[in-house]
Amino acid sequence: MAWEGTVCRVKFNPPFSERSSRIPRPAFAHVRAACPEDLPGIARVESQCFPVERRSSRRAMRQSLRSPTQSVWVLGRGSDVFGAMVLFHHPKSLRIYSIAVAPECRGTGGGRRLVRMALALARRSGRQTVTLEADANDTRLVNWYASLGFCVYGPPLTGYYPDGDAVRMRAKVKWDPPAAEKKKAMDDERK
What we know:
The chain is α+β, with helices and mostly antiparallel strands. It has a single domain, classed as Aminopeptidase (3-Layer(aba) Sandwich), CATH 3.40.630. It has five helices and eight strands, in the order E-E-H-H-E-E-E-H-E-H-E-E-H. It has an eight-stranded mixed beta sheet, with helices on both faces. A hairpin with a 2-residue loop joins strand 7 and strand 8. The longest helix is centred in the middle third of the chain and has 16 residues. It is globular and about 60 Å long. 27% of the residues are buried. The N terminus is likely disordered.
């Protein structure tokens, strides 16, 4: 896969009131492709972020790690996992199936870094959009995605969640061809 080995850095700088918390925080965390050893950390983050009926099972997460049409990304440092994202790879789009950041790391830019990674992956792979579904009752979440370039489209998904509806959101991306392809295209134009 073209995106393997891609690493982004995000500096954790929690609000002053949270700095004295007993939970250790890394100075830096990276977004990287997940591996089977990350499953316990991913499960911990999901259990902190989602009600039971919205969590992925360990079996489903293992399947996502092995699937040629899915990828799992973690926000972490060493073996510590602070966030996770599951992507479904479709021919013309990427779908953010799940994204979660541990409560102690919210507000530090980690969620933004994960979403930007999805947008960058779509751009590099020539996909046109990144899509997701968000809880229609969570206006804060919908507005957060909007701040990252996502727009609501289509009718709401009635009964998507056991306790409510969802909105569909998408962000359009422009393909960013690799440098070699850009050079070839420029050479072709000169001929």
